[in-house]
Amino acid sequence: MASPLPGPSDLDLIIGAVREAGTIARRFFEGDNKVWDKGSEGPVTEADIAVDTHLRETLCSARPAYGWLSEETEDTPARLSTTRLFIVDPIDGTRAFVKGEEAWAHSVAVVENGAPVAAAVYLPMMDKLYTATATGGARLNDTSLRVAAPDGRPQVLASRPAFEARHWPGGVPAVDRHFRTSLAYRLCLVADGSFDGMLTLRDSWEWDLAAGALIATEAGAVVSDRTGAPLRFNSKGRMTPGVVAASSAVHDDLTTRLKET
Predict the structure, then answer these.
(1) CB 154 within 8 A of CB 196
(2) Residue 31 region, left (φ>0) first, then alpha (ψ -120 to 50), else beta?
(3) From the first residue on, what is the mean pLDDT of each consecutive set of 10 residues in the chain (261 residues)?
(4) Secondary structure letter of residue 112 according to DSSP
């Protein structure tokens, strides 16, 4: 009897799943879409729930031994005992989605023992698919990615409050600030060389960062929390102490200024 054909790799699996998620989300984006308020956690929409259901059913049926952590699924302790799990943001940038803007993404990472090993961030309205595997490099559609070397003042993605002087004992860095809603997309924009760095100093949900962190790292960025420590995922609290992602020189400057006393 012939041996069975191997199934898809984790990366191929999540690529197929996020592309299908894009088809689902576009129907809501271009049609009716109910919106609810989660208070301090922001809005959630019918599209978030539909995409979460699709991704959970598709991915968990293909990898039943993997754990699951998603913004729109009630968390359980079961994931903490798994070696591998999916970390998912069904729609990263829901506020942009609700406003009719195109910069929202489906973000999926496979994490093994705390470290991402496969990732996909897909922006359906822009037809941008960012992918990466650990030690395998990062790509945007069919193009390999590499972080940019700063040319003049670093161009950094961050919210305005992140550059308040109280956060910078070593002095506020001389950068030009820009903003995008989706944290996953911000990380990818560093990976593709559009910006020299990104940061958020607020404690951040793991599902916002896991996929983008691998993509940025594989493109040559240095990615850490706001203290300079490596990011780790699948924690009990589901949060990281912020994130700083940038080319090496910019990352060193930012984290030194944040820590200097």
Answers:
(1) yes
(2) beta
(3) 61 98 95 77 87 97 97 94 96 92 96 97 97 97 92 93 94 93 94 96 96 98 96 97 96 92 50
(4) E
In a 13 Å sphere around the CA of 220, the CA atoms on its Cβ side amount to 14
Strands (E), 59-183: 67-70, 84-92, 105-112, 115-123, 128-133, 137-140, 143-144, 155-157, 176-178
CA distance 242 to 261: 19
The Cα–Cα gap between 23 and 121 comes to: 14
- Helical pair 10-29 and 46-62, crossing angle rounded to 10 deg: 160
> Would you say the C-alpha torsion 247, 195, 51, 209 has a positive or negative sign?
positive
**Burial of 146: CB neighbours in 10 Å, binned 0-12, 13-18, 19+:** middle
Please count the residues of the chain: 261
